[in-house]
Amino acid sequence: MFNDLLAIGMLQRLQARAIRVPEDMSIIGSDDIFGADFCNPPLTTISSPIEQAGRVAVSMLLSQLNPLPGRGGRKHALMPTHLTIRRSTGPPPH
C-alpha cells in the first residue's frame, strides 16, 4: 500500500467483497496515522521520522547547491523505520 489512508480504504473495499483480512489477504500501510489502530482489523503499518527525513533532505539539497571544496554532497541517507504489527497481516493462505 501507499499509505495508511489508502490501506484503510482497501480494508473497507475488501470487506464489502467478503475478502477476509488477514485470512485471505494481508494489508499493510505506512505513516501510522491516528486511527490506524481503530479500524477493523487494526492496520499493520510502517512509520518513519518525517521531520528527520525533511531535515536530511534539505541538508542534502543545500550541499548540492553549495558544495564545500573537496567534499562531495551526500547522495543517500538511511532513515530508521518501525513496523507496528497489528491484525491486518498474517501468514499466507494455504
Description:
InterPro entries: LacI/GalR-like_sensor, Peripla_BP_I. Keywords: DNA-binding, Transcription, Transcription regulation. It holds the Pfam family Peripla_BP_3. This is DNA-binding LacI/PurR family transcriptional regulator. GO terms for molecular function: DNA-binding transcription factor activity; transcription cis-regulatory region binding. The protein is elongated. It has one domain. The mean pLDDT is 91. It contains 2 helices and 3 strands, in the order H-E-E-H-E. With 94 residues, the chain is of the alpha+beta class. It starts with a helix and ends in a 10-residue tail after the last strand. It has a 3-stranded mixed sheet. Helix content is 31%, strand content 11%.
Write a short abstract of this structure.
This protein has 94 residues and is α+β, with helices and mostly antiparallel strands. It has helices spanning 4-16, 50-65, and strands spanning 28-30, 44-47, 82-84.
Which descriptors apply to this entry?
94 residues; alpha+beta; three-stranded mixed beta sheet; 3 strands; elongated; transcription; DNA-binding LacI/PurR family transcriptional regulator; DNA-binding; transcription regulation
Task: Give the secondary structure arrangement, pairings included.
Layout: H1 4-16, E1 28-30, E2 44-47, H2 50-65, E3 82-84
Parallel strand pairs: 1-2
Antiparallel strand pairs: 2-3
Keywords: DNA-binding, Transcription, Transcription regulation
Organism: Pseudarthrobacter oxydans
Pfam family, one: Peripla_BP_3
